[in-house]
Structures
1.
Amino acid sequence: MSKQEMVSEPTYKTVATETSFAELFRILWLRKWIIVIVVVTSTSLAVLYSLSLPNIYKSEAQLAPASEEQASGLAGLAGQFGGLASLAGVNLNEQSSGKVLLAIEVLKSRDFITNFIQKHDILLDLMAAESWDFSTDQILYDPTIYSVELKQWVREVNPPLKPKPSLQEAYKQFRNITSVHQDEDTGMIFISIKHPSPNVAKQWVELLIEDINATMKERDVMEANRSIKYLTEQINTTTIADIKTVLYKLVEEQAKTIMFAEVRDEYVFKTIDSPISPEKKSGPKRALICLFGLCFGLMLGVFISLSLHFLRTTEHKSN
């Protein structure tokens, strides 16, 4: 290849590229009003949609695992009497981290959440809340879901669903607005809830913390009582002094579990940062929605303009 050819080839590509961009700009400029109309329409729809969305408030609490004062006593017995203790349902190797992980999973479970919804009677505020009136601190309900005048559910659904939402629907909705996670580095637990009412969001976070502590406390007390019953029966039947001594120690540790449960309200989770009623909304991101509408309208307008040009060019060539 000659030097002249080596120089002219990239020059030709540059000129061709500039020509193609100029042609593209000319095509879009000729149909600029189509692009403007599409962009204005798309952006206007995005603005109207963002304004129709209610403000959502997020309340969050920061928790720490409650200390396990009885853990040292159980650990001391684990090496020698773990097998005997397991027969009585006593887990000598249970660590605080394991109990916290279990509590987090219980907190996310269907049974716990459905019981929580029924216990505190929050189905209406969960499934029908549309917005929040700041001046009266009242929740406004979606009239297509619940009639305040008739005091009944009026939503239109297909079987097997009913006008009144089922607990399965309520569970899914509650999981959608709730977040529970543990920081891997610090071990801190964060529980948050989003709701149109900031006060409801705060109240539900507080109730969640209270209920999960009570649930885990009740679980451990029931297990400790069953273990004590079994161990007491074994003490009454055995005649070997050393085994009786071990059994008495196990009973003592289970009695400590019950004692700590009775005196501590924050049984599994200890509140570090309490939930508050947020003053600022966490959503929706109206500016982002409007920006998306503008970008979508621009791309759609360009696509329509180019499509019209190529269709007309194809028809012209065919004729």
2.
Amino acid sequence: MIKTSYQNELLFSDTLKKGSQGPDVRRIQEWLCLSALRYPQAVLTTAIDGQFGPATERALQNFQAVLKLPKTGIVTSELFARLSAPLSTAFQAKPTVSDTRKAVVQVAKAHLNQRSAEIQTDDGQNLGPWVRGYCDGFDGLPFKWCVGFVQTVLDQVASAHGRNFTSIMPQTLSCDTMALSGKDNGRLLDSALIRKKPDRIRIGDVFILRNPQDNDWFHTGIITAVLGDAIETLEGNTDLKGGSNGTAVFARVRNIQNATIDVFSIEGL
């Protein structure tokens, strides 16, 4: 794979417990909060401050209880692997189908199934291990991670077939850069065209939302089904309202007649 920053999110070699502090404690706290999305009945959410105090210890013990492990309140490399398993599972998922387009949908669904999401704190938006994995080690407000999600999925599929996704688009975190490259290489299908000929859209292709007022591309995702004027999608950094700077990976249905949606063909990926 080209996008390998996710591997840094899986590194852990120390044993941490109450009284520990620092970046590794913060990572544990991030994963405890993210685990609350997977185990809503467990009390796992705690402050993300890098201080391993009594609240972090209790949240960790609650996580151990979910896994039916001894409630030691101590983080070993083995326990951290269990905390970060959703990310390792998603980023290391390999397609089991030979058809490239179906493989793209399959891998994208692996990220959805592992509850890919950003950390929500008072420190801002677009934070956490999933965002850093998608955005080449970066997180924070400027890093809207929808493109990073799309290119991670394409990277996983292409590398599984011995190819590079950069053969069809540049590695980037920018919707504009991706769309303009599609215009240059003839892969970008304009919204006006696909409204007239929706049969030109195929599963696995990448949709890109565009503001028709200034032709700014601002959000992207992967098309998983085409149903006439409706497309089903998987999108990173969106929300239940379909926003372009949301909190997680969501499956959505979009109407190509009601929004300015251009489509980037992945043919030959």
3.
Amino acid sequence: MPNAPGHGGKVLFSVLLGTFTVSLNNSALNLAVADLMATFDARASEVSWVVTLFMISMGMTMPLTGYLADRFGRRRVYLLGLWGFLAGSALGAMAQGLTGILLARGLQGMAAGLMIPLSLSLIFSAYPGDQRGRASGIWGFAVMIAPAIGPSVGGLLLEVSHWRALFLMNMPFALLGLLCGYRYLPADSVNRRRRFDLPGFALITLGMGAVLFSLSRVESLTDLWRIQALLPLTAGVLALCLFVRVEGRARTPLLDLSLFAQRGYRLSVILACLQSIILFGCVLLVPLWMQTALGFGPLTTGLVFLATALAASVCSPVAGHLIDRYPPHWCIGAGLLITLASLLGLATLTEATPVWMIGAWMGLRGLGLGCAYLPATAVGMQNLPEPHIAQASAMNNMARRLVSSLGIVALSIHYDTAVQAALQRGMPYTEASAAALQHAFLALAAIAMGCLPLAWRLGRAMTRHAPAAPGDMPSPDHALTTASARRPQ
């Protein structure tokens, strides 16, 4: 794709519209669970599939993005995903029952699974190497700001209108995204001879779907050992292990696992996975503390998280600019230190802690998030050959979803077990909850501290293999060259 002045900005704007639409819709719909339960006289476990099915279908579609982008072109596949998301939104708005809504959410999830991994690939292809950090920072702003305003927008629409409005609000953004996409996203080369790896697709789909389904049903240690969760979890893990073995022998693998042989990319995925545990761990723990222990309502809890998202969204473009100009480990390391400080602050929460103090610690966490979370992902893919970026992004996303789901289950089990043990010793519930949270936040702080040497190694690896001149793409390392040689041209 050309890197003419102004072209990159048009591509970035086009991709941001689609990314913003997906993130905004998903965060806004979380507020509709109570409304849908009342409207359709359904149980919470049934309505929770509105969120769960989206995540599972997205995780099952992501592995296809590399193959589809290679076979049909990134532009065509991305726009197909946006059309699918638009169709899912229309189907949801017209649904007459919960089944129709679930079908709509499944379609939206599959569409999002095509769009999200391709978004960074399309953006990177429109910018030279020395400007990709800045572009990914602006992309990160949209990724962070949409979930921040989503609950507010969703709450307002539910207050003045109907749950159908949460589906209808996507349509103007999606239509504008399609208009700009067809106008500004250039066509790219395709490989019509690329073969489809059916065994790999079957195994990764079964593995991702089974693991995510099982973990979404687990809230306590008792749940984990029930046959309904243990059987799909075991089957999913076995399928994923078999997938790795099959892909290593495939001539045209669905996912090129040899990308992990590149040190910078491998470190960035590990960093992203560890930070995703911190990110979603706080999403789990802070509402537990504020709503169940202190009795605050959803609005107050939402405002606390708004501080995180706003701070991260403001910081993300600045961090993107910094990683273009300076060695990336300084920015990522500073973000991790800020994250560490915020987690240690959250570990001091007591019943007497004022709400503004909780909001301040969460805002500080947002600054660390903006400096370290998305930049680590972007840095790891900056020097990859362009044809590999879509697969690299998909594998990064899938790894983060699996690891964060495991982390949430571990934290949930710890919290439940610790609180029950403290209550049996006669400790009041608020004190029991505070003690459990303190240990959980300290564990997350330990993870952040463990990320610091990884960030340093990532920065050194990327600096060592940086392109000789701005805009030059680095030559693939030996592992990537070997992998590419297996593919028919």
4.
Amino acid sequence: MTDLSLPNLPGALPDKRQVAASFSRAAASYDSVAELQRDVGRQLLGRMPQDFVPQRWLDLGCGTGHFSRALDEQFPGSHGVALDIAEGMLNHARPLGGATHFVAGDAERLPLQDSTCDLIFSSLAVQWCADFDSVLSEAFRVLKPGGIFAFASLCVGTLFELRDSWREVDGMVHVNRFREFGVYQQLCAASALNVVSLQNLAHVLHYPDVRSLTHELKALGAHNLNPGRPGGLTGRARILGLIEAYEQFRQAQGLPATYQVVYAVLEKPL
């Protein structure tokens, strides 16, 4: 079993090229199934200091640009950069506007100059970064003194119902791996940024059946991308086994899918 207590997870998280390709393919379908992403992003926006008004912001892992447009509306007159590793997402977002610039880039090596942003906003993107130390270092470098890095990510416990159900079927890796919340706490505390707030909250969605959940994950581009995943098509017997195992979790509202969300607001010292 992979040690998820490690600060960084080389070999346990998917290759960046696979992440970029998967989310590029999902660009057209993403918004139709992004209920959780919308909810988490809205909550993250609400966690920023009330009197904070950035002149220049970065939407890190902008996806289809939904929150680039939200930032543009919330901070009229500001200038924004929408950045994503997936070209397909940028191609989808660019015609919809919201940001001043749309840039292909990596959160671990930001293509931006030092001390150029008042705000870095990142909702459900940095969980795909194997080297989170570098993400924090780059945020510190790019932020102006007094600037804010607000991010939402996923941690261990996310989709545990699906993970445990597959484990009963074949014991193989079918669900993406994520860091422990404690690791986020350690890395943020050890960074050069001040921790304003850091919290882990569970979001639970419900589905009528397993197929609805797996279809949504594929439409989001967030289906299983990790090393060790089984190759080829999944046989009918294993699918039926998955359905039977997952039914043990059924609630009155349907089949639950739990997402453990990390909310963080960090500040660069003056």
